[in-house]
Each structure stands twice: as C-alpha cells, then as structure tokens.
Amino acid sequence: DHFGKKRLDLAGPLVANLFRILFLKLTKDVFKYLQRCVESSTDFNVQMAVKASIITNGLKYSLATGNWGDQKKAASAKAGVSQVLNRYTYASTLSHLRRTNTPVGRDGKLAKPRQLHNS
C-alpha cells in the first residue's frame, strides 16, 4: 500500500489514553472509599483512598504483555501494541523497527495490500 494512506498509532496518544483509563479507575475507587467513609462516619484518609499501584500496575501490565487497555477487559484490549525489541544483529533490529501491522485478514483475497509499493 501507499505510505501516504497509512495511519499510525503513536506512543504518546496510546500512553495518554491508557493513563486516562487508569486515572478514571483511580477516581472511581477514591469516590467509593469516600462514600464508605461518609456512610460509616469515619475520617477520610487520603493515603488509604489513593492507591498509586492502580496506575503503576496498569502501565506495567500493558507494557509487559502488549495488551493495551485495562487488565480486567483483556478481551477488548488491543493486542501486540508493545513488543520486545530484537537486538540480535543490527539488521534484525532495523527489520523489527520497520515492521507495520496491516489490519487485512489472512484469508482476504485482495492482493494489492500485500504487494510492494515503492513509496
């Protein structure tokens, strides 16, 4: 295919969307903790309410597995977003960096997306 028609998912927006999902999860947990404190008339402790491990573990999980999204919703997450970079040889490193993922199925009969384009 022509490289002018390619659209890329860059690292910045991907990490930003992942952080947004995890931050919303954190705020929901803080809100639930606040509701429990109000119902039981106990003091609100910020250190107990804010669990930094939610964001940390979510980012670690996504970068380690490549399943980009919430760990609980792994079925709907994008698969293969992050990969371990090959460092066997210089040529294998360049080959790994230049790979693109085309969303065309293997059983598709279109030959044009698989043909080399000189752009």
From TrEMBL:
A biological process from GO: DNA-templated transcription
Enzyme class (EC, first level): transferase
Organism of origin: Parastagonospora caricis
Protein name, as recorded: DNA-directed RNA polymerase
Cellular-component GO terms for this entry: DNA-directed RNA polymerase complex
Keyword list, A-Z: DNA-directed RNA polymerase, Nucleotidyltransferase, Transcription, Transferase
EC number, as in UniProt: 2.7.7.6
Lineage, highest ranks first: Eukaryota, Fungi, Dikarya, Ascomycota, Pezizomycotina
Residue span, RNA polymerase beta subunit protrusion domain: 9-57
